[in-house]
Write a structure and sequence with these properties.
The chain has 334 residues and is an alpha/beta fold. Helix content is 35%, strand content 27%. It folds into two domains: 4-123, NAD(P)-binding Rossmann-like Domain (Rossmann fold); 127-286 and 315-331, Dihydrodipicolinate Reductase, domain 2 (2-Layer Sandwich), CATH 3.30.360.10. Strand 11 and strand 12 form a beta hairpin. Helix 1 (13-24) packs across helix 8 (285-299), helix 5 packs antiparallel against helix 9 and helix 7 (174-190) packs across helix 9 (307-326). The longest helix is centred in the C-terminal third of the chain and has 20 residues, at 307-326. The two termini are 39 Å apart.
């Protein structure tokens, strides 16, 4: 299969340190150009990462006929506008999460995708990771009995007011940055949408971003409960509780690419010796994400996180903000 040629919109840290090196290690993807509003930043990044071409504007990159698809890691509020411009330029789009901050802009993006006849996906790399594919199969197989509770925790400590994750006006804060993970994975594992949600949010008094969020989501089959924070000791874990079994996903979100992923399974024992550990071969989930997208484009197949699913995820996150603001349960529209 011919490699899918990517152009990168901006020199965002996640692109430079995670996604571009991962794509360069793939047999299915190739990074041929990078862009920035600063020619110096674009040139420096291109030289450091061995990228052939660089541009001093996003517009110039979108005009490059040698680019098949773009990866969009711009700040959250620019995801939909620049993904739309890329589609209208005839490029396929892999856009960093969260795809959009409002349902209206994602609905418009879906219309644009269909009008332009391109492939587009939200970049949730966890949906390409073997530990989550296996976890979903274990749930579907009935090994846990009936899945009733999902419990998650995701935190890091970042108090830099200049960091885009801490700028409220452009979609910063814990819910948009990391709360989206337990939301999307809960929907993925329960294979449906929550009926209603409740949330308690604490905001930084200076930066005005949500720095601590505790959430309850009610599904037909059970409940999802999670906490996320941008100002706590770094930690992450996901637990799945069924009627006959329990799974613990050890590093659920930032899966390491230098050591195996591990999930633990038990049937209610408190004895460590009776807990079964499953270890997965070392992989880079960002490489797998790029591979999945390339196959979807080249084979006209499904993407791992379609825009329609991104729309549903954004609807839930906005409902959580409403629930916290109005201190009440909020129903999710069918």
């Amino acid at each position: 299969m011919k490699k899918l040629r990517f152009g990168i919109l901006s020199t965002a840290k996640i692109a430079l340190t995670k996604v571009i090196p991962a794509m360069q290690n793939s047999a299915l993807t190739e990074v041929v150009a990078i862009s920035s509003r600063s020619a110096d930043k674009a040139r420096t990044a291109a030289e450091k990462l061995g990228i052939q071409k660089y541009y001093d504007s996003y517009e110039a990159l979108l005009k490059d006929p040698d680019i098949d698809a773009i990866y969009n890691p711009l700040p959250n509020h620019l995801h939909c506008p620049w993904s739309k411009k890329a589609m209208e330029a005839g490029k396929h789009v892999l856009c960093e999460k969260p795809l959009g901050l409002t349902t209206e802009e994602i609905e418009d993006l879906i219309i644009t995708r269909d009008r332009c006849g391109v492939t587009a996906a939200e970049a949730f790399m966890v949906k390409s990771c073997p530990q989550w594919l296996e976890t979903r199969e274990l749930v579907r197989s009935g090994e846990l009995g009936d899945l009733r509770v999902i419990q998650g925790f995701f935190s890091y400590d970042n108090r830099d007011p200049q960091n885009i994750r801490n700028i409220a006006d452009i979609g910063g804060g814990a819910m948009w940055d990391i709360g989206c993970y337990p939301v999307v994975l809960s929907r993925y594992l329960f294979a449906g949408e929550p009926k209603r949600v409740a949330a308690l949010l604490e905001f930084d008094p200076v930066m005005k971003t949500d720095r601590l969020a505790s959430v309850v989501m009610e599904f037909d089959q059970g409940q999802s409960i999670f906490t996320v924070s941008t100002q706590l000791v770094p930690y992450q874990r996901m637990h799945l509780f069924g009627t006959t079994g329990h799974l613990e996903v050890m590093i659920p979100f930032n899966a390491p690419n230098a050591s195996p992923c591990i999930i633990k399974q038990d049937t209610g024992t408190l004895a460590e010796a009776e807990v079964r550990s499953r270890s997965f071969p070392v992989v880079d989930q960002y490489t797998l994400q790029g591979d999945d997208f390339a196959r979807a484009v080249c084979e006209n197949g499904p993407v791992h996180q379609p825009l329609e699913d991104a729309l549903k995820n954004t609807r839930v996150i906005n409902a959580l903000f409403t629930a916290a603001r109005e201190t009440r349960w909020v129903a999710i529209e069918a």
